Amino acid sequence: MSTRSPYKATMITAAQDWAEAAEQALLDETLKLAPVHGWTRRTAVLAGKAQGMSPGETELLIPHGPADLAALLSRRHDARALATLAEVHPSNLKIRERIRRAVEARLDASAQDEPALRRWMGFLALPQNLALGSRLAWESADVLWRWAGDEATDENHYSKRAILAGILTGAMAIRMTAGRKEALEFVDRRIENVMSFEKWKATTTIRPSRWLSGAAETLARARYGSAPPQA
Q1: What predicted TM-score, i.e. pTM, was given to this entire model?
Q2: Contact 168, 137 (CB under 8 A)
Q3: S-S: 161 plus which of 66, 105, 141, 231, CB 3.0-4.6 Å?
C-alpha cells in the first residue's frame, strides 16, 4: 500500500507538468534557432537563455542537450500525427491503406517544422547519433503500427516496425529533397514491395525466421564449438 500523501502526489505531478512544459518551451526556441545555428549544444544553451534559464538549469532539464531536443521533436511529430489520425477509423481501411495514411500523417506533421527539420536530420545522420536516429524511427513506427491496430507479439512485431522505420526515414529524406508528391510515391512503392513479400511468405515453405535461427545457431557453433553455451 502506498504511503505517499495526496499533497506529495500533487507536488510531484506539478513538477512533472512544469518539466514537460519547460521542455516544450525549449523545443519551441530551438526550432527558431536551429535553421541558423544547427542542432548543437550551443543551440540548446541559447534556447535556455531565451527562456530565462542559466546553462546549468538548461543542462539539468535536458542533460543530453541536442539529443534530448531531437527526441522531443520526434515525439511531438508523433503526437501531431496521431491527432490528425484521430479523425480516421483504421478498421474501415485495408492494412496497406492504414499504413499509407499513417505515414502521410507523420510526414505532414514533421513538414510544419521543415527549416529546423533539415538540421535535425543532419544531426541524426552523424555517426555518433545513428543509434538515436534509429531508436526514434523505431518509436515512430511503433506509434503508427499501434494506431493501425497491430497486435502482433511474435517476430512480426519487430519486422513490421523495422520495415516501417526504414520507409519513414526514406520518405522524410525524399520529402526534403524532392517534395511531398515524390515522397508519397516512394511510400506507395515500398508498401507494394512489402505486401508482395507478405504474399510470398504466405505461399512458400521457406520461413525467414527459420533461416535466422539457423544462421544464429551456425554462428554460435563457429564461435563456441560444437554446441552453443547453455544459459
Answers
A1: 0.80
A2: yes
A3: 141
